[in-house]
Amino acid sequence: MIPARLPAGLAIAAIVATSLSGCAAAVIAAPLAAGAGVYKSAQDRPSKRERKRAQQAAPKPGQVYTAPDGSKVQVTTLTTLPPPSGVSGAPAARGSTAPAGIQYLYGSGEAAALSIQAYQALWNYLKVEIGYRRDKGQVRSVVLAPGSTLDNPRFEPCGKRPMAVVLDVDETALLNLGYEYDEAVRGRAYDPARWARWEQTGADKIAAVPGAAEALAAARREGFTIIFNSNRSVASAAQTAAALEQAGLGPADLFDTLWLRGEGEPSGKDARRAKIAQRYCIVAMAGDQLGDFSDLFNAPDAPVLARRNSVEGTLLAPLWGAGWFMLPNPVYGTGLKGGVDDIFPPDARWTDPEEKK
Amino acid sequence: MIPARLPAGLAIAAIVATSLSGCAAAVIAAPLAAGAGVYKSAQDRPSKRERKRAQQAAPKPGQVYTAPDGSKVQVTTLTTLPPPSGVSGAPAARGSTAPAGIQYLYGSGEAAALSIQAYQALWNYLKVEIGYRRDKGQVRSVVLAPGSTLDNPRFEPCGKRPMAVVLDVDETALLNLGYEYDEAVRGRAYDPARWARWEQTGADKIAAVPGAAEALAAARREGFTIIFNSNRSVASAAQTAAALEQAGLGPADLFDTLWLRGEGEPSGKDARRAKIAQRYCIVAMAGDQLGDFSDLFNAPDAPVLARRNSVEGTLLAPLWGAGWFMLPNPVYGTGLKGGVDDIFPPDARWTDPEEKK
């Protein structure tokens, strides 16, 4: 098979012609046209030399070749081939099945689709909803105003501050492929010291979350400032900025468009959100953790179902997909807690009738 | 604490007044007004008697009471309290930590937010995009036309067929709480015979996926037919229809708005999609598996990264969130496969420098 990269223009032209032809069509298709190509990922990131070779050959996806052995071969959009099976000399852990969360988030098309969908929704929201409200002078911040509770949220008008999108970094904008690979291969649990070394040395072993680069580039072109609010350490600000650049998500400048956790600071993000909101009107937020939207979601010792209900059973429910944008992450985070009895409500427990006999 | 149910009107009035005041505001808020209340789940599903009591008392969320002991108590929107900790006599497995995927999908607010977001996007798409195209007579099916490939997709105009939304059942419309509880508590792997018994006897141990009931009700009111396409067995059609009713997602009528897998039929869904498309114009699809959109995604023996790339690196990428709507499911499915070496591309592997020494 001959790996080929799909030209950006082709994707847009075709999809607009065949599928999206309505009023919101241009809106929805725009982020795809925006980036350097179609949605990319680490496995879709050829080296400079490979990229050059692909451009010279430039076969079209779907094109059928007759291979030297006479067989018919169809060109795909893949840019790298999967590793050969049965790599010799690899430790046993490498060949074995990865944990389900890792398989899902970093390996599945399902998770990639969820991410693309979230970034499409973000872009669509900025373009349609914020575009409309901007014209009417009715833009409000999506950061909970001081004194809000989850049951009694309040949002304030923005005045004339410039509009910004605030998002988390890890597993929201960047996939930490290198770190997760190392942890999975060794079967180790999370270690803050190892993570600190990862922040310092892993800037080129990452990928953009599918859809992120295109949506952020499109938002910047429309005049929105993109601001990252992360619990990565201020001590590795330069390396984090480099990782964001590497993934096509930059620029990110410390204390302006990049806010990180200072030595000894708590892990909550409300304080940094407040600082950002002094200068910007935050019209959209994106994250993979509830704490990326408000620290109120992380009340200490909150029972599992109370925390879940605070998302779906309060006045905040309508914000998901309309101001607040969630990215998938079943691999780590504050949402991963509880035993079976904490998670399944008593009236929804079933016992296999065969077991009862 | 006094559990109280939030009246439906309140949620909408408040959110429209405080947050959503633009052109798409009515659109986005509508599904919330649609259902019997705010987003509900099993833990948010009181018995009839409980519901009656709550209506009589009807305290408002956020309201502060002075409790009999003199302490101040604020009313929440929760309708049930979490189970007490340290349940005595329970087997060890019940108290222990649940698998991460279970914690995420059934317990976390993060997954609930992802689901609400997906259904908001579906409703928004039907209202804005399809509404516009319907006026112009430019509606196309989102089912891949015969002869399509993932690299060369084609979509056909609908003519005058009535418009429908086709969606999967399990972990797309319904959360199978009872079954997953039983499996987690026993530490068992999936067993088709046990699943068959679940289909037959578990209709009341489920919950609607957050956001589903409201979005489907709103779509029906706008004239869209809601059709379920599931690999549940035709033999338990009545019980599956009852489960959908119970969750507030019905009606579902076999061979019209409910399509199930017949005895000995393959697990692919394209054949049933084709039958549905003979009578309806399928303008949106929702699922938690790529096979809910096209069987082409499940080519046998496709390498992990090739399958993932078929989602994000092809002409199909712009459909996620705009015609095709993905729901989260890191617990089971065809996307959960592969070892570490299949998932992480060679150029994104990192080794902790401390390990190298």
Outline the fold blueprint.
Two copies of one chain form a homodimer.
Chain A (H helix, E strand, L loop, with lengths): L7 H11 L6 H10 L13 H10 L6 E3 L5 E3 L17 H4 L4 H8 L1 H28 L26 E5 L6 E2 L1 H10 L5 H10 L5 E2 L3 H10 L3 E9 L3 H10 L11 E4 L8 H10 L1 E7 L16 H9 L11 E3 L13 H4 L9 H4 L1
Parallel strand pairs in A: 3-6, 3-8, 6-7, 8-9
Antiparallel strand pairs in A: 1-2, 4-5
Helix pairs in contact in A: 1-2, 2-9, 5-6, 6-9
Descriptive report:
Two copies of one chain form a homodimer. Chain A has a domain at 100-331: Rossmann fold. Chain A has 357 residues and is of the alpha/beta class. In chain A, helix 2 (25-34) packs across helix 9 and helix 5 (100-107) crosses helix 6 (109-136). Residues 1-93 of chain A have low confidence and may be disordered. Chain A is globular, with a radius of gyration of 22 Å. Chain A is built from 14 helices and nine strands. Helices cover 39% and strands 11% of the residues of chain A. In chain A, strand 1 and strand 2 form a beta hairpin. A five-stranded parallel β-sheet of chain A has the order 7-6-3-8-9, sandwiched between helices. Chain A has a two-stranded antiparallel ribbon with strand order 1-2. Chain A has a two-stranded antiparallel ribbon with strand order 4-5. Chains A and B meet through helix 1, helix 2, helix 4, helix 5 and helix 6 of A and helix 1, helix 2, helix 4, helix 5 and helix 6 of B. Chains A, B: InterPro entries: Acid_phosphat_B-like, HAD-like_sf, HAD_sf, Lipo_e_P4. Chains A, B: Residues 40-69 are annotated as: Disordered. Chains A, B: It comes from Sphingomonas agrestis. Chains A, B: Residues 1-29 form the signal peptide. Chains A, B: Pfam families: Acid_phosphat_B.
